[in-house]
Amino acid sequence: MSGKFLWGVATSAFQLDGSPSADWTSWDPALGEKPGLTGHREVYRQDLRLLKELGVNAYRFSIEWSRIEPEEGRWDEGALAFYGELVEILRSYQIEPMLTLNHFTHPLWFAEKYPWHHEGSTEKFLRFAGKVLSVIKGVRYWITFNEPYVLVLGGYFEGCMPPGLRDPSRGFRALTNILVCHSGLYRMIHDRVPGAMVSLAHNMAAIAPWHPWNPLDRLLSRLGTRFYNRSLIEVFMTGILSMKLPFSKELKTEVPVKGKLDFLGVNYYTRTHLRFNPLKNFFVELRHKDVHGYGLTDLGWEVHPDGLHKVLKYASRLGVPIIITENGIATKDDEKKKQFIKMHMDALRGCIDGGIGVRGYFYWSFMDNYEWLQGFDSRFGLYRVDFDTMERKPTSAVEFYAALIRKSSSF
Ligand code: BGC
Known about the structure:
- The protein is α/β, with parallel strands linked by helices.
- The protein has helices spanning 13-17, 23-27, 40-54, 65-68, 77-92, 108-113, 121-135, 148-157, 168-192, 215-238, 307-315, 334-353, 396-407, and strands at residues 6-10, 58-62, 96-102, 141-146, 197-209, 240-243, 251-254, 264-276, 284-287, 322-326, 358-364, 383-385, 392-394.
- Bound molecules: beta-D-glucopyranose.
């Protein structure tokens, strides 16, 4: 991948604006009382202006399928035109758009009739993408799915996200369909967008045993790393999807995705320690400890910049460029936010100096927004949002990130 290093910020449509006809809106009843969330759809021009002032040269955002096709087969052309205009404004500011087609949410009709474990799911999503491609022009960077493993683990293993199941075999089918769909999207986008760069965003975590002296914790850590971080990368190298969860039988199938990534999007946030606990799902308890004394984030996550090198080193086996499509911290403490960015920037520089081909970095998030399981209190934003007045205020991390971009343009 030639060209400039992408310096950006990331958001997702639902987290900024919600949607009346999305599966997640029925899932979280608190959302009914807060339609509009950040009010981005009303003030998008001002918001995009803030992006320009920030000095980023790229912006990752998603489009909300449930607004574009609120009922099966009924297209809301206005909703699509909104995203088309967003792209035009970004282009006029020389900001490279990176468009995510699926960031966790779906139209309610899809969730009810064709959830991902269902045979018909892929065709419905491809039809939606075809429509998007016929209207939205000028996007080179495409993310087909945001964090397929988070979607499937949350939706089918833990049941904390829609469709709220605890059924690994249907979860495996859902993941298989999502990957088959990625393969179709890859072809479709390349057919229609010359020079397109197509990927997905893979959530990778540093993983370690809770008690290093405990062989069961060590075993879980090995299996967890292989399953959570590596199996999605392997499937793009081999075409074989293998899911081996602790103490359960391996699930395996062929999927036609070998080589179908032009870069790899990596979302990196934290390290997780795994502890053997027979009372938990798959005998695994996830924990965070403040090993370095940086303090846990407001979501209770460890700040662990060194983990970046470990996960990216593995990711680089794919042999395609890597873009950090998300990295960020939930905190109300601006100094801590700046420190987080600085430490991850240093780690990133170390990765690049060590020969890992990273070609972009997107901070999560441009502004505070709705956080899936926690609501409105997790402040990831560079801009602070007052959810009553919708006012945006820059945190001091705005100037800090802007200065860093100015200094590091030759990264
Ligand atoms: C997701 C975002 C989310 C962030 C913080 C990522 O896994 O893609 O939507 O807000 O993590 O939890």
